Amino acid sequence: MIQHTFQFLDGIGPGKEARIKAQGIGHWDDFLAVESIDGVQDGKKPYFDRKVKEAKQHLHSGNTSFFSQVLPKQEHWRLYNHFKEDAVFLDIETTGLSWRDEVTVVGLYDGINTKMMIKGINLDYTLLKKELQRYKMMISFNGITFDVPFLNKQFPGVVPSIPHFDLRFGCKKIGYSGGLKAIEPHFGIKRRDLVHDLHGGDAVLLWKMYRATGDEHYLNLLIEYNEEDIINLKKIADTVYKKLAAGKEQKENNC
After folding, report:
1. 166-179 residue pLDDT tens
2. For residues 140 and 90, what is the distance between their CA atoms, to the nearest angstrom?
3. H/E element holding 6?
4. Which long-range contacts (CB under 8 A, 24 or more apart) does 250-254 make?
5. Across-strand partners of 91?
6. Whole-number Å distance between alpha carbons of 166 and 178
7. What is the C-alpha to C-alpha distance for residues 255 and 253, in angstroms, rounded to an integer?
8. Which residues contact 63 (CB under 8 A, 6 or more apart)?
9. Residue 39: phi, psi to the nearest 5?
10. What contacts 24+ positions apart, CB below 8 Å, involve 205-214?
11. Is residue 240 exposed (0-12), middle (13-18) or buried (19+ Cβ within 10 Å)?
């Protein structure tokens, strides 16, 4: 789907993009194949052609940081199908919701294996930065608003400049609102009994109990809770991407 958007070009938003596609120009190759486009100044067409060719090169080389800089955040989902094998599904736990609070757990999932980074054990700036630099794309639920700002507050600059598919907003586009736990059943997801009834506030309490008692039962429960989050993100992302892509195709076919 990334090759079906022109919103990385200067001055082209959803409205102008729709007018371009109404002329039968729905793909980067279509754009390059014509000499002129209604709504695009003739003097700008060669410049835009160079930018489209540049985008093709970056896509081919896997340089996703290019797209994170030029593509509107609400369009980052378009890159998912290209880079899901090199994506990280991320979720954090904290000591609370205030900006004075701290990150306790960073859960990372690459689609096969999970990696849990724990405050006081293996969570620090260097290790986290090295881990995140392995990936070309990030998927979260409300990470744009919460997880990424929180991480960058505690570990300035630790989050790389890569596209971010935030499923909170992706789900909203296809008609699902609310928190992750409320949305999961719509995707056929049922949590394991041990963590089925746990929510964000419980995660804060589990950390406090672990620190107060040293009992690893509380830490293990917190880890399992976070692990469910990141594994379920992939199941949701796969479906949300397909529905968003299908919706775009249907809309363009009706133009």
Report:
1. 999 999 999 999 99
2. 5
3. none
4. 252/4, 252/21, 252/26
5. 107
6. 13
7. 6
8. none
9. 95, -10
10. 207/93, 207/95, 207/104, 207/105, 208/95
11. buried
Cα separation, 186 vs 181, in Å, equals: 10
pLDDT of 250 reads: 66
Q: Which residues contact 50 (CB under 8 A, 6 or more apart)?
A: none
Instruction: Tell me which residue of 241, 207, 224 sits closest to 78, measured CA to CA.
Output: 241
Give 109-125 pLDDT, tens digit per residue.
Answer: 999 999 999 999 999 99
Please state the domain extents for the chain. Answer: 2-61, 82-243
- Domain 82-243 matching CATH 3.40.50.1110: the answer reads no
d(CA 57, CA 163): 17
Calpha distance 122→105 (Å, rounded):
10
Contacts of 53-58 spanning 24+ positions with Cβ under 8 A = 55/8, 55/28, 56/3, 56/28
